[in-house]
């Protein structure tokens, strides 16, 4: 048997460049959040840690504007929260109507298929969103048990209006799941007032935490569906009954289910404190102002926004049309190499066609908007002069 030698690189410190993360996430985390992540570990059922989990729960209820008792953070990234919504609510044969205006709908549809649900898709081209009448037609045509909608479609940089969707779905006996990974905190979302049965987000976007703990909330109708399932939930790790117990949401003594990501929960607690100090209304306003500043600056550079309808533009992730003859990647590479500023390309249908600039949480500040604008201007000018 070969002896595996000590990996040489592990004997040296990590190389660690500081970067300004102005893509669609992760965003940079504030020093307070990073410091929280460096605190000593506690046990995952120690009373002090349980108190931190309870603080997170009330912070998530505030961020989502919900009184749902089953509100917690999934141990995993936003994808794990998406899987949790799917595996708890979908049983074999259930019809699920998925609104697809970018990659996230298709991803949820893939998960539904893995749970033997019956996927029906409503599609829109990248850059457009769904009207209530589009959704009503889909509900009438397919009679689904569940509807999936992406609030902030980061791949096509659209903001889907959610108002009225919950009420409409409930009229048709259908539950609604909202992916607000890229939007929550940057634009209004009122889970209870808008009758949204399940909402989830990620930690690494507006909340500006390290990825790894993802807030989610199940409303009473969603829990009723979970409790009346005919078949066992096909994931132990993401079983909402088990998670609700671990998070103290079911009034029962907490049992060991899994070991929570302790340091991630500390950082989430700190990020939720920062949001509480700023308040939701001010956080929404800061994102709107920074997005307006970015949009103005882009117009001055002669650049075009990808989403034509101003009401459908996602303030947290802006799509910018790459002008003819410009290589988006060379511009992004120049920004990274010279200024350590991350500017992303498109994703899915928008790949190669747009740049995506994130204004997420801690990074949604006017000086960061200026850095992005000057990096874009320099990259495009250099390329036009064929220097790149
Ligand atoms: C990830 O969320 C992305 O939009 O690239």
From TrEMBL:
Can you list the GO cellular component terms from the UniProt entry? peroxisome
Checking Pfam families in the record gives: Aminotran_5
Q: Which residues carry this modification: N6-(pyridoxal phosphate)lysine?
A: 205
Which protein are we looking at?
Alanine--glyoxylate aminotransferase
Single GO MF descriptor: alanine-glyoxylate transaminase activity
EC code: 2.6.1.44
What cofactor is needed?
Answer: pyridoxal 5'-phosphate
Q: Where is the Aminotransferase class V domain?
A: 43-358
Q: Which residues bind substrate?
A: 356
UniProt key word Transcription regulation: no
Q: What class of enzyme is it?
A: transferase
What's an example Gene Ontology biological process for this entry?
A: glycine biosynthetic process, by transamination of glyoxylate
């Amino acid at each position: 048997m070969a002896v595996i030698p000590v990996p040489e690189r592990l004997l040296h410190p990590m190389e660690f460049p500081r970067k300004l993360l102005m893509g669609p996430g992760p965003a940079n985390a504030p020093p307070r959040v990073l410091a929280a992540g460096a605190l000593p570990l506690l046990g995952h059922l120690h009373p002090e840690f349980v108190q931190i989990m309870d603080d997170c729960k009330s912070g998530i209820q505030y961020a989502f504007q919900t009184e749902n008792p089953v509100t917690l953070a999934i141990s995993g990234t936003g994808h794990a929260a998406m899987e949790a919504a799917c595996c708890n609510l979908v049983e074999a044969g259930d019809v699920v109507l998925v609104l697809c205006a970018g990659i996230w709908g298709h991803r949820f549809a893939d998960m539904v298929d893995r749970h033997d649900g019956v996927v029906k898709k409503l599609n829109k081209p990248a850059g457009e969103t769904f009207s209530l009448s589009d959704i009503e037609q889909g509900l009438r045509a397919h009679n689904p048990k569940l509807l999936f909608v992406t609030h902030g479609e980061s791949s096509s940089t659209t903001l889907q209006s959610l108002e009225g969707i919950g009420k409409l779905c409930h009229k048709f006996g259908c539950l609604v799941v909202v992916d607000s990974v890229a939007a929550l905190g940057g634009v209004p979302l009122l889970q209870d007032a808008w009758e949204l049965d399940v909402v989830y987000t990620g930690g690494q976007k507006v909340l500006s935490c390290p990825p790894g703990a993802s807030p989610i909330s199940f409303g009473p109708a969603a829990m009723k569906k979970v409790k009346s399932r005919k078949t066992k939930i096909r994931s132990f790790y993401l079983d909402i009954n088990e998670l609700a117990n671990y998070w103290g949401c079911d009034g029962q003594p907490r049992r060991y289910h899994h070991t929570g990501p302790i340091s991630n929960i500390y950082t989430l607690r700190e990020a939720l404190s920062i949001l509480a100090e700023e308040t939701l209304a001010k956080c929404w306003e800061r994102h709107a102002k920074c997005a307006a500043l970015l949009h103005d600056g882009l117009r001055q550079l002669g650049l075009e926004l990808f989403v034509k309808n101003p009401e459908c533009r996602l303030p947290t992730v802006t799509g910018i049309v790459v002008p003819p003859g410009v290589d988006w990647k060379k511009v992004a590479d120049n920004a990274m190499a010279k200024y350590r500023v991350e500017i992303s390309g498109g994703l899915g249908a928008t790949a190669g066609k747009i740049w995506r600039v994130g204004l997420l949480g801690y990074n949604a500040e006017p000086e960061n908007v200026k850095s992005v604008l000057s990096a874009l201007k320099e990259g495009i000018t250099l390329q036009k002069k064929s220097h790149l």
